[in-house]
Specification:
single chain; alpha/beta; Rossmann fold; 3 domains; 9-stranded mixed β-sheet; 5-stranded mixed β-sheet; 28 helices; 25 strands
Length: 607
């Protein structure tokens, strides 16, 4: 039997769950049936049609996709009850021997794969599985000229034409290619260093190479090249290729052919290792090698039980929509049913980006907040000198429109301390915490290299801006809604908070109104950075928020000032606030040329 430890491979591959395998196998076989290339009207036609098809997994691993294909084969054979079992077995053996191919770089994994297939289907022999080969699917024989014979041998180059005796085009390529970033891996692995050099230099790959590429980019490109005309590719992949700027060449290549479906699984964890869910956001890409471009079926935000056949049949419409493929290009793909409205905003010449008119900064990094961040009561108790203390907020203190801390908090700011002895009360407090401050490999390394003093923050990120700017906007780095608050007290925050500093101080109120508006709720949810159902307000996506030009947005100031006043008052102004915000949102939606009734309906459906 095979060890569970072998199921996780050092090459970046993980055990693919059966429900994912069955989904992909069903997807490609139904497409072949739709094309008339799998015929089920008689056993004779089924046999002839299936034996005319070839299937390949270019990173076969421990064989899950081949087992899924074999399960499909035997399920279909059940409908031909009149056929003798022996004839079915001979058909199966013939199919496996001549129509099923696979390659893997790991000998242990391939051995497990072969043992599993024979264990599940004892009528098979090793000879029937001779088309399962060892090699690196993306390293060609030109590697010897680039790296020399000895180094080339380490990468296990594979010639598709030679090793499969000219059978280098397949009807279906499916699987789960390895996932790892080349640039990060070269620091850990000699083979990754060699592979990096090869892909960068090879005439086959250099036009697709990016230093920050992920290895699976090359598997997708190679596999599309291995497919016959009208053939199919279906892979489960990390979903960041949809928006990562270094995936532009991959997206451009994929767009040469028809994308049938993208099932974006988002934060729905698929892979497990040693009983723990792995934090890998994935999608399933299914393409057909034809040049005509039709609409793409996109499926998003599915529940965990989506892979149940009954759930799919009942609720597919709820989670799916179509987008025109011709609206996609090299740049980030927006998979949204509201692509028309998003494009109207993104192409609106009356709009600019937030980064054009404001600086976006991440909070400072106190590191040990339990040491440096204290309540007002603790400041008084320890008699911390006020010269070294700054006001501090947590992300929970930031509300829409205002900052409202339940308890006042302060942070000791060691950068203000030249000589610790000059602040005896602070010195006494910090000495009591010295053991904590000298704990942890990162802090020890920084202290030993004299980059910080033992009582310093690990990093003084954006310190100058927090020290000098007293009025700014602040937002938590993550939330279910846009939540931007006005800071007029010069608060400091940690790295889970971002500050927005307008270049023109008169912009503070207009920008606050826009960022808290329904239009930004809509735009960010559909075109910004999401993690599951939460918006992630990091520096780069914040800078890209579209806003009206200055002459347009200044009319928002009185609306916003009035809302801030109402929100700050203790009496219940909920109804009045809603009316004022309604007026504000109507005004802002006109600036973006977006129908306000559409916007209200969207907000209602997503709240």
């Amino acid at each position: 039997m095979y060890s569970r430890n072998f199921l996780k491979k050092s090459t970046g591959e993980f055990y693919t769950p059966i429900f994912v395998v069955d989904y992909i196998v069903a997807k490609v076989t139904k497409q072949l049936e739709k094309d008339g290339r799998i015929r089920k009207d008689s056993f004779k036609n089924f046999k002839e049609s299936v034996l005319n098809l070839s299937f390949c997994d270019p990173s076969v691993g421990t064989g899950n996709f081949l087992l899924g294909l074999f399960r499909w084969f035997w399920r279909e054979l059940r409908f031909f009850e009149e056929i003798e079992p022996q004839e079915k077995e001979l058909f199966f053996i013939s199919f496996v021997t001549s129509n099923v191919y696979g390659v893997d770089i790991n000998q242990n994994s391939l051995d497990i794969c072969i043992n599993r297939l024979i264990h599940e289907y004892p009528i098979l022999t090793i000879e029937n599985l001779s088309n399962l080969r060892i090699g690196n699917s993306i390293v060609d024989c030109d590697v010897q000229q680039i790296l020399g014979k000895n180094n080339a041998r380490k990468l296990l180059p594979f010639s598709w034409e030679r090793d499969f005796q000219g059978k280098i085009k397949f009807d279906v390529v499916f699987g789960n290619p390895p996932y790892y970033n080349l640039k990060k891996m070269i620091l850990k692995n000699e083979k990754a260093q060699l592979l990096f050099t090869y892909l960068k230099t090879s005439n086959v790959w250099k036009n697709f190479f990016r230093a920050s590429s992920d290895i699976y980019y090359f598997f997708v490109i190679r596999s599309l090249n291995l497919i016959k005309e009208n053939g199919y590719l279906s892979f489960i992949l990390p979903n960041y290729w949809l928006h990562n700027k270094y995936s532009d060449l991959l997206r451009e290549f994929i767009l040469q052919y028809q994308i049938l479906e993208i099932l974006d699984l988002g934060e729905l964890n698929i892979f497990r290792d040693e009983g723990k869910w792995l934090n890998v956001s994935t999608c399933i890409l299914t393409s057909k090698k034809i040049e005509n471009k039709e609409k793409i079926l996109v499926i998003k935000n599915v529940p965990r039980n989506f892979f149940s056949k009954k759930i799919q049949e009942k609720s597919l419409k709820k989670y799916s929509f179509y987008i025109p493929q011709e609206q996609l290009g090299k740049s980030r793909w927006l998979l949204s049913p509201y692509l028309q409205e998003i494009n109207r905003i993104n192409k609106n010449e009356k709009l600019i980006q937030l980064g054009d008119v404001a600086k976006v900064i991440q909070g400072v990094s106190p590191g040990l907040k339990s040491v440096f961040v204290l309540s007002q009561q603790d400041i008084v108790k320890n008699q911390i000198e006020e010269e070294v203390v700054v006001p501090f907020v947590t992300n929970k203190d930031i509300k829409s429109w205002i900052i409202q801390a339940q308890t006042e908090k302060y942070a000791i700011l060691p950068s203000r301390i030249e000589n610790l002895e000059d602040y005896p009360k602070t010195q006494k407090y910090l000495l009591n915490k010295k053991k904590e401050l000298e704990t942890g490999p990162d802090r020890i390394k920084l202290i030993n290299s004299d980059k910080i003093r033992w009582f310093d923050y690990s990093v003084y990120r954006n310190l100058k801006h927090f020290e000098t700017v007293k009025i700014k906007l602040m937002t938590p780095y993550r939330g279910s809604l846009p939540r931007f608050g006005l800071d007029n007290k010069g608060y400091f925050g940690a790295t889970d908070i971002y500050g927005i500093i307008p270049k023109d101080k008169n912009d503070i109120y207009p920008l606050l109104g826009i960022l808290n508006s329904q239009i930004i709720n809509f735009w960010y949810r559909e075109a910004g950075k999401m993690k599951g159902k939460l918006m992630e307000f990091f520096s780069d996506p914040l800078k890209k928020i579209p806003i009206p030009k200055r002459g347009k947005r200044k009319i928002l100031t009185p609306y916003v000032k009035e809302i801030i006043q109402l929100v700050s008052e203790t009496q219940n102004n909920k109804n009045i606030i809603e009316i004022k915000m309604l007026d504000l949102n109507k005004t802002i939606s006109k600036m973006y040329d977006i129908d306000f009734n559409f916007l209200r309906k969207y907000i209602k459906n997503t709240s």
